[in-house]
Amino acid sequence: MARTTTRKTTKKTVKKTNSYAAKDIQVLEGLEAVRRRPGMYVGGTDIRGLHHLIFEVVDNSIDEALAGACDRINVTIHPDSSVTVEDNGRGIPVENHPRIKKPALEVVMTMLHSGAKFGGDGYKVSGGLHGVGVSAVNALSEWCEVQVRRDGKIHAQRYARGIPAGPVAVVGKAAKGNTGTTTTFLYDREVFKGNLEYRFETLVQRFREMAFVTRGVMIYFLDERAEREMTFYYEGGIVSFVKYLNRNRQVLHPVVHADRQVNGTGIEVALQYTDAYAESVYSFANTINTIDGGTHLTGLRASVTRAINDYARKSGLLKQADPNFSGEDTREGLTAIVSIKHRDPQFESQTKVKLMNAEVQTQVQQVLGERFGEFLEGDPRAGRAIVEKCLTSARARDAARKARDLVIRKSALESLTLPGKLADCSERDPNKCELYIVEGDSAGGTAKQGRDRNFQAILPLRGKILNTERARLDKVLSNNEVKTMISALGTGIGESFDLAGLRYGRVIIMTDADVDGSHIRTLLLTFFFRYMPDLIGAGHLFIAQPPLYRISEKKDVLYAYTEADRDRILKELGRRKPVISRFKGLGEMNAIQLWETTMDPNKRTLLLVTIEDAAAADRTFDMLMGEAVPPRRRFIQTHAHEVRNLDI
């Protein structure tokens, strides 16, 4: 019996394992690795990855501009969503590579980690350093065709999903002096699945940034799908960029500009203080927008803080007993751009979101520290205005800290940080929970009745929250509705913000489909953008899409979420005469209707809130919600004709 039992036990515990031998080791040839793991090369197969394809190709043309060989780049989106990028650079070499024995053009387009940017004299500075950019685009395209104008000839090669369709061939003559590269590609819908389309606005923002940080290059962008075009050219470079960001703000002094070479690294910084409360600082490395910052951004912030403290001490504006300004004190109202040009930049990943070169921090501090110090000493009026701004910020920060501590202490006493008006859910796994922030008690009551109590929580807000674009954190924290949201979310705010404390994986703004609802939604978005940007960056913020129309025909009821939806449904109903009613508020729907149309995960539509371009979002929020009236009036007058539903 014992033996039998042992034998049975042994059979149960011995697991059959998969084979793991030399034959199981896969070697991915050519560009197959890119197609297997596209996220490693272009950041994903979503809308961001789709735009990244264009950016990779344009970055190559920008590198030609940095080398002094190109001053014009044309980008065209064709009606079939194929894209052409043309430059007047030197043209990709076409002669045979001495070691690989293939045309250099084919090597660049079909082999990872190939290019003229690893060393030698091809490029002193470039954004594309891994040698995978354009070859990755080729691999992820249904087809791609490259034409090179070089040595009086036009050379061309076509590819299908990264594989050459034929050899590099001469297809024509190029006029004398006409050189450059033209790349046309159509993204592969087998990789980028779903209803993805290039967004004109997203591309405009990126091309504008490229033109700002690459002085003297003209970028022409044509979208043939809607016959829209824009041209970007900024002789002033990043000084023009700072002026562009501050054009709706009251500035305290002229733009401070520093531009120097340190050990072969080009360091350029432009900064200006305004009367705003938020910080608007952006960093670039070899024209690449490093959205997660890095050593150059750390150097800029440290340099600004040190220079202001030194000046404030020397001028007697800070007394001996006064503490130094913190970094947060000196960043309020600061608009700054730091752009570095490095021969061998080290990025955190292929998508180049963070610069890692340790020496750059010291170099930026050295260049900006000297220039900013000189400016403060040479313009005492501006120096005093900046220091007074920092003093006001320091006092407000202290008041905000006390208010924040009070919010935390009060919340701790109120049922484990949960406000009384919150109807919480029973699920405790944040990844499975949703919080609906709802406009008004009436809609809140309907939502509470219609929700799934297991995973959906409801937080009704009374009236409109404070316009956080026009208030410092201490005033923000005195607003009851804001305090309620902070308590419900569990993340804290400002310096104490911690995404790990988030109690709901989805935070969903649900407001009426009228003017007041749009205003409340904008106020909420302004709050999250200014004080909880990481919530947006991590993909936790959504906007609910309630229907605009209820269309009933006998016993059948249909809902239309857009004007186009309504027109399509009416067309399908033909000669029948349905009853059409428009929802002006969530309170007009009963609980069942609200669940079926707006809250049921199987039927609803949620819009994910993203910050595709922080600089553009910064300027837009400042224009819509800031103090200056004329820019807002111009915006309304310009876009008034686009209004389709106006509630009087």
Can you describe what's shown?
This protein is α+β, with helices and mostly antiparallel strands and 648 residues long. The protein has three domains: 201 residues, Heat Shock Protein 90, CATH 3.30.565; 158 residues, Ribosomal Protein S5, domain 2 (2-Layer Sandwich), CATH 3.30.230; 159 residues, Rossmann fold, CATH 3.40.50.670. It is 38% helix and 19% strand. It contains 21 helices and 22 strands. The strands form four sheets. Strands 1, 2, 3, 4, 5, 6, 7, 8 and 9 form a nine-stranded mixed sheet that branches. Strand 3 and strand 4 form a beta hairpin. Helix 4 runs antiparallel to helix 6. The longest helix is centred in the middle third of the chain and has 34 residues. The N terminus and C terminus are likely disordered.
Number of domains: 3
The secondary-structure class comes to: alpha+beta
Judging from the principal axes of the Cα atoms, what is the shape? flat
Report the sheet with the most strands, covering strand number, pairing sense and barrel closure.
9 strands, mixed
What is the terminal separation in angstroms? 88 Å
Number of strands: 22
Mean pLDDT equals: 84
CATH superfamily of the largest domain: Histidine kinase-like ATPase, C-terminal domain
Helix segment tally: 21
Which secondary structure elements does this structure contain, and how are they paired or packed?
Elements: H1 2-13, H2 32-36, H3 39-42, H4 47-66, E1 72-77, E2 83-87, H5 104-110, H6 133-139, E3 141-150, E4 153-160, E5 163-164, E6 169-173, E7 180-187, H7 200-213, E8 218-223, E9 228-232, H8 238-245, E10 256-262, E11 265-273, E12 280-285, E13 288-289, H9 295-314, H10 327-331, E14 334-341, H11 358-378, H12 380-413, E15 434-439, H13 441-450, E16 456-461, H14 473-476, H15 480-489, E17 506-510, H16 515-531, H17 533-537, E18 541-544, E19 549-553, E20 556-560, H18 563-573, E21 579-582, H19 591-599, E22 606-608, H20 614-625, H21 629-639
Parallel strand pairs: 1-8, 12-14, 15-16, 15-17, 17-18
Antiparallel strand pairs: 1-2, 2-7, 3-4, 3-7, 4-5, 4-6, 8-9, 10-11, 11-14, 12-13, 18-22, 19-20, 19-21
Helix pairs in contact: 4-6, 9-11, 9-12, 11-12, 13-19
